[in-house]
Amino acid sequence: SPLQFNIRGKDFLVADTVDLQAVASPDLKVQFADNTFQVRGAVVVPSASIDVEKLDSGVSASEDVVVLDPVDPERTPSSRLDLDMAITLGEAVKLKGYGLDGSLAGTLNVRSRVGREMVATGRLDVDGRYTAYGQKLLISRGELVWSNNAVSDPRINIRAEREVEFQRHRRHR
Asked: From the CB of residue 136, how many other CB atoms can be counted at a distance below 10 Å?
C-alpha cells in the first residue's frame, strides 16, 4: 500500500534565518507510491520577511575542493513529483533587496506533473518602494501574473513613480 500522510498546522515557523523568516499554515495531503510523490492542498503564508540579496549570495566552494559523486544517475531511479498546491501570501509578507522594499500578497496555484515543467496560475500583488539610480519611487501598481505558464516566468506589470514639484518662474520686466 502507498505511504500517505497529512500535514496540517497553524502559524508554523518554517524558516528563521538572516535571509528568510517565514510562518506558514499548511493543509497538505502527501502520498508516495510507484516512485512518485503526490502533493495536494494549500499553504497559507500569513507573514514572512525575505531578503533576496542575502538569499542570492550563497557560499561557493573553495577552488581546491574536489567533489566525487559515485552514484550513477543512469542507475538511480529518480523520484518524481505530482503537485497541485495553492500558495496564499498574506498582507505581512515583506520582500527586500535590489532596491525593492515592499510586500507581496495574493494566491498562486502551482502544478507539476511527472515529466513536465512546473506551471502556475494566479496573481501576486506587489506594493512598496523601489530605489533605482538614486531615485526613490513609490509602486503605484504592481502585479505578478501567471496564466498556466512556468513558475519562473510570470507576466510582470509594475508601475513605480515619484512626484516632482514644479516651480513656475515668472519673468519680471
From this structure: 12
- Per DSSP, helices labelled H in the chain are 52-56
C-alpha gyration radius of the chain: 22
Q: Residue 88: how many CB atoms within 10 A of its CB?
A: 19
State the cell numbers at 147: 496564466
C-alpha cell recorded at residue 34 = 510507484
Measured distance CA(8)–CA(25) in Å, rounded:
7
Q: Which residues contact 60 (CB under 8 A, 6 or more apart)?
A: none
Question: In which element (H, E) is residue 54 found?
Answer: helix 52-56
Cell representation of residue 120: 502556475
CB count, 10 Å around CB of 4?
A: 11
The per-residue pLDDT for 76 is 47
| pTM of full prediction above 0.85 | no
Determine the 3-state secondary structure of 56 from DSSP: helix
Cα–Cα distance for residue pair 124/155, rounded to 1 Å: 11
CB contact burial 101-117 (16+ within 10 A = b; e otherwise): ebbbbbebbbbbeeeee
Half-sphere exposure for 129 (CA within 13 Å, toward CB): 8
pLDDT digits (tens, 9 = 90+) for 150-170: 999 999 999 989 888 776 666
